[in-house]
Design goal:
Blueprint lengths: L1 H22 L3 H28 L4 H30 L5 H25 L19 H17 L4 H14 L2 H15 L3 H14 L6 H13 L4 H13 L3 H14 L7 H11 L23 H8 L3 H21 L4 H13 L3 H14 L5 H13 L11
Helix pairs in contact: 1-4, 2-3, 5-6, 6-7, 6-8, 7-8, 8-9, 9-10, 10-11, 11-12, 14-15, 15-16, 15-17, 16-17
């Protein structure tokens, strides 16, 4: 009962506020305007008399000006009177009456109808977790890509558009489109470390992991633009290993490791490549008694050299086998945050978004959400564009 009383009072208040502009008379507003005009013209007449008294204006000119001001004064007074009379009865006009009736009926009736459809005084509160929230997934990013592509078809010289679209293409595995987009970005916006490195990475993925001559040239331009650009250094070191230039590769990998942050995703491969290039034993894989975050062995120089001679399908199978070994190790030793990050990123690079999502979900379930490891995994997923459900989200 209290609810309905409050609802009735609020409805009545809204109805009155809606009707007030129609019910009030315009007389006061119009009269104020007419009085203002009369006062202005009266002041002009007084100033005219003062000018004549000071000798600033000849009497003949003053008479002419006085006549003109007087005519304006009379017109303003007559106009104000007629508008005032019309405004007094404006709410009684047929159109105004029709509007009053419509508002008086529609506001209460519309409120009742809407409440009957959407409301419910006896319904329980909906928990925050159960409320609908914006979602994003593969369909959303495909829609955004389609919109960007349509815009670029209309404006193919939009360099900023190509800069935005190129890394998205690379992330979702459309590597041929990524290479073309990076080329357009370089042509329109100029060479930069990020654009050249992106082009080189796209070309390397097109070649199933082999750093081609064109990709090498792009990485060299990236390094020239920014000597501290680590992705370019990684692929240039990888190219040396693929070509069997062991001494140069060891130096390049060592420089990369020295310049890299401790959580760089390529450290595992770099350390293994250094050991192979120097003829040393590769880093040991983790055991049950070892430090759980010790990384497993990555592809060494011999593996990379062998992969360079393989067919594209065989090379892809070898890479996927290495990733599978990491996944198997994490099944027996799941408390390895860095291992999970490497696995998720590896699946992403391979273009297997479903496997990346499954690994991300498992990692989220392995660590408590409020723990440091859980927060680190969540932040890593945000960086890669993964939702809590493991799906790719729009960036």
């Amino acid at each position: 009962m209290i609810f309905w009383f409050i609802a009735a009072v609020m409805t009545a208040a809204v109805t009155l506020l809606s009707l007030w502009p129609l019910l009030r008379s315009r007389q006061e507003h119009l009269a104020s305007r007419a009085e203002h005009d009369v006062e202005v013209y009266s002041a002009q007449l007084r100033e005219l008399d003062a000018d004549v008294a000071r000798g600033a204006m000849a009497p003949a000119e003053a008479e002419t000006a006085r006549a003109e001001i007087g005519r304006r004064l009379l017109r303003a007074a007559d106009r104000g009177k007629s508008e005032s009379q019309a405004g007094t009865a404006s709410w009684q006009r047929p159109r105004t009456l029709a509007a009053i009736v419509a508002v008086a009926l529609l506001v209460p009736i519309g409120s009742v109808v809407l409440y009957a459809q959407l409301g419910g005084a006896g319904r329980p509160d909906l928990p925050l977790a159960g409320r609908s929230a914006p979602t994003s997934g593969p369909g959303d990013i495909q829609t955004l890509i389609a919109g960007a592509e349509e815009r670029l078809r209309a404006e193919p010289e939009d360099g900023r558009g190509w800069d935005v679209l190129a890394p998205i293409y690379l992330r979702i595995g459309r590597v041929e489109d990524a290479a073309e987009a990076f080329r357009n970005g370089i042509r329109l916006n100029g060479s930069s470390a990020a654009r050249e490195s992106g082009l080189g990475e796209a070309l390397t993925q097109i070649a199933s992991g082999e750093v081609t001559d064109e990709a090498q040239a792009a990485f060299e331009r990236a390094e020239a633009a920014n000597p501290a650009h680590l992705p370019a250094k990684f692929f240039l070191a990888l190219n040396l290993s693929q070509e069997g230039r062991r001494d140069e590769a060891a130096i390049a990998w060592t420089q990369l490791v020295e310049m890299s942050p401790p959580d760089a995703p390529w450290l595992e491969i770099a350390n293994a490549a250094i050991a192979d290039a120097r003829g040393e034993a590769p880093p040991a894989t983790a055991t049950a008694d070892a430090d759980p975050v010790t990384p497993p062995r990555g592809p060494g120089e011999a593996d990379i050299a062998a992969a360079a001679d393989m067919a594209a399908d065989d090379r892809q199978a070898m890479i996927e086998g290495m990733v599978s070994q990491l996944a198997a190790r994490l099944e027996s030793n799941p408390n390895d945050v860095e291992g999970w990050k490497r696995l998720i990123r590896s699946y992403t690079v391979l273009g297997d978004s479903e496997a990346a999502g499954a690994a991300y979900r498992t990692a989220r379930q392995t660590f408590a959400a409020d723990s440091a490891a859980g927060r680190e995994i969540a932040a890593f997923g945000d960086e890669l564009g993964l939702t809590a459900e493991g799906e790719t989200q729009t960036q």
